[in-house]
Write a structure and sequence with these properties.
6-stranded parallel sheet; Rossmann fold; 12 strands; 311 residues; alpha/beta
């Protein structure tokens, strides 16, 4: 990509999309285009086709998606599969139809089988059953990977896919009904600290393991791959993560400390834990020349400071 290349960023207001926008601007890219979701329905094929025909982007970052945690995935199953299938199909096909030089498709580590060996290697895709609580979202993300692969194979496009681990960061979703575990914890600890009620109740047992990556690190990895690596080098997709995980109970202690909460933590074991462990193998990413830089403690402090500035 050249600094004045026309870059379309789909999903620029989301957690990952806003990090990509910050990262691209910081790297000196000056011709980034995007549209607010209120005026552009990415599920509408005609709208997407019209936009690509008019704007003719050279590069595309596909970060738009309907996302959420266990509760949201379980509640809005039909929306999660339909919306994400349509968004990916429309943007990937329009990119081919209108001559996009390179596209980066952002997926999710939930694509892997629930009981796949750890850490998760790229070749484990479709080797077993998915976690039921996020199967609709995972199926849509797997379809997007395959779309990119088969467009490359049939049409000679250069569409690459990346599979990030769990993300957190600036512009995260802190709505307790739809948020992921880390921002939900920040919100719960903060609210109870402010109210002075004394105890924070968290979902599950706290014994499952998760890997967390700051969205600014993910953006850095995506921009690096778009600048330096093509489909021929990456293959079907590449994991992006930190290579380290921890128990949810340990995460709770880090957030408790960052927020400055002095009360007790209670665990509601009647609520689901989700997948027991989900650590990505990032050896392929490291071999491609990129490694993570932001520690979990520093990243959480940065996000909480941002949250305080907004609330």
């Amino acid at each position: 990509m050249k600094k004045d290349s026309k870059i379309y960023l789909a999903g620029h207001t989301g957690l990952v999309g806003s990090a990509l926008l910050r990262g691209l601007k910081s790297a000196g890219y000056s011709n980034i285009i995007f549209r607010d979701i209120s005026e552009f329905d990415l599920r509408d094929q005609a709208e997407v086709e019209k936009y690509f025909k008019a704007e003719k982007p050279e590069y595309v970052f596909l970060a738009a998606a309907k996302v959420g945690g266990i509760l949201a995935n379980n509640t809005y199953k039909a929306e999660f599969i339909y919306d994400n299938l349509m968004i990916a199909a429309n943007i990937i096909n329009a990119s081919y139809q209108h001559g996009v030089k390179k596209l980066l498709n952002l997926g999710s580590s939930c694509i892997y089988p629930k009981f796949a060996p750890q850490p998760l290697k790229e070749e484990y895709l479709l080797t077993g059953a998915l976690e039921p609580t996020n199967e609709p979202y995972a199926v849509a993300k797997i379809a997007a990977i395959k779309l990119c692969r088969y467009y490359n194979e049939q049409y000679g496009t250069n569409f690459i896919s990346v599979m990030p681990t769990n993300q957190y960061g600036i512009n995260d979703n802190f709505d307790l009904k739809t948020s992921h575990v880390l921002p939900a914890m920040i919100r719960k600890f903060h609210d109870v600290k402010v109210s002075g009620s004394g105890t924070v109740t968290l979902w599950g047992t706290g014994e499952v393991y998760r890997e967390f990556m700051c969205s600014d690190d993910l953006a850095s990895a995506c921009i690096y791959l778009m600048e330096n690596k093509d489909y021929a080098e990456i293959g079907e997709f590449v994991n992006i993560g930190t290579g380290e995980d921890l128990k949810i109970k340990e995460l709770a202690q880090i957030i408790k400390q960052a927020v400055g909460f002095a009360g007790e933590i209670a665990w509601d074991a009647s609520k689901p834990d989700g997948t027991p462990k989900k650590l990505l193998d990032i050896s392929k990413l490291k071999a491609l020349g990129w490694e993570p830089k932001i520690s979990l403690k520093n990243g959480i402090k940065q996000v909480y400071d941002w949250y305080l500035s907004k609330h």
